[in-house]
Design goal:
This protein is mainly alpha-helical and 321 residues long. It has helices spanning 11-22, 24-46, 52-62, 80-106, 109-116, 119-130, 137-154, 166-197, 203-224, 235-259, 264-270, 273-285, 292-302, 304-320. It is 74% helix and 0% strand. Helix 2 (24-46) runs antiparallel to helix 10. The model is unreliable at 1-8 (pLDDT under 50).
Length: 321
């Protein structure tokens, strides 16, 4: 019989540490969500004076900073399928950037943030189709919560007939654009998970491809229509643009790192912490008001991440024992 004193068995502590480490993707997704809320605040402010294509141009250039960090030993892992998925991911990412910036220019920071992180609604569908992930009772609850939250925040005219003034209609259009960005972001999440399954995911390369696609696209638009949208006119504009580019880049790095250890739906759910941070930043730095329906809708979208985080850690811990 092993010589072991009661209370000195360290196995429970090591199992717990391994369980928490295995859920590091949740922490990365959490930090990525916070950084994206800062990106949203900067986008909401900068789009009042600077055009979306100019913002996209500078954000694309920032991706060049990642060249020294590329994992060159991954080159032999890239076949035709992997390259196609990488290009698809980069294209989806740059589309999300354009749509998100446009949405932030039409509606508030909190509302746009909440709708952008309704990705779980679409990740669940796509995960079932592409990744063969099975539905569960919890997925159904998540779908219902997300759909209800989206309706309360976007306030579609066919459901809220009494809200018909121009400002509400403009915010509804912004909400639809944000939902379009969420759908595109869900495709991007699934593409990254496919790369992870193929052991060919280099998050620095993904962002660099996004930058290359965005650079050529924005360059063509700006070269053919230089008067389209505003340009940087002051140091104030430059500071907010720098904050947006930096926080957006760091947010993507954290989210991509999270996707390498967690499934797409979990990452999308945990990163919805961005919604709460967006509303707090909106109250602190803008003049936009927050009404009760927005708060309830955001709550219904963000209530699930805590459950998924705790559930994941506890499952890993009990499995280890």
């Amino acid at each position: 019989m092993p010589n072991q004193k009661h209370g000195t068995d360290p196995s429970w502590a090591s199992h717990l540490c391994r369980s928490i480490y295995s859920q590091r993707g949740i922490l990365f997704a959490f930090v990525g969500g916070i950084l994206w809320s800062v990106n949203g605040l900067a986008a909401n402010i900068i789009t009042k004076t600077v055009g979306v294509w100019v913002i996209g141009y500078f954000c694309s250039i920032c991706q060049l900073l990642l060249i020294p960090f590329l994992q060159w030993d991954y080159a032999e892992r890239y076949g035709v399928a992997e390259v196609s998925i990488i290009i698809l991911s980069g294209l989806c990412d740059i589309i999300v950037l354009f749509l998100a910036c446009y949405a932030y220019s039409l509606t508030t920071v909190g509302n746009t943030g909440a709708l952008l992180y309704s990705k779980p609604l679409f990740c669940v569908f796509l995960s079932r189709i592409v990744l063969q992930v099975k539905y569960s009772v919890y997925d159904v609850v998540i779908l219902v919560c997300n759909l209800t939250g989206i309706a309360l925040i976007s306030k579609p005219p066919f459901l809220f007939a009494s809200l018909t003034d121009d400002e509400i209609i403009t915010e509804f259009y912004g909400s639809m654009v944000a939902i379009g960005a969420a759908v595109t972001g869900a495709f991007q999440f699934i593409a990254i998970r496919k790369l992870v399954e193929r052991d060919a995911c280099d998050r620095f390369l993904l962002l660099l491809v996004k930058g290359i696609i965005g650079f050529f696209l924005c360059s063509m638009v700006l070269a053919t229509n230089l008067s389209h949208g505003g340009h940087i006119k002051s140091t104030y504009d430059l500071l907010w643009l720098t904050l947006q580019c930096g926080s957006g880049l760091c947010s993507c790095l954290f989210i991509y790192a999270a996707l390498q250890s967690q499934d797409a739906s979990t990452v999308a759910l945990v990163s919805t912490v961005e919604v709460l941070a967006s509303f707090l930043l909106q109250v602190a730095f803008t003049d936009d008001s927050v009404d009760l329906m927005d708060i309830v809708g955001a709550f219904m979208i963000t209530i699930c991440p805590i459950w998924y985080a705790v559930k994941g850690i506890l499952c890993e811990y009990f499995d280890a024992n």
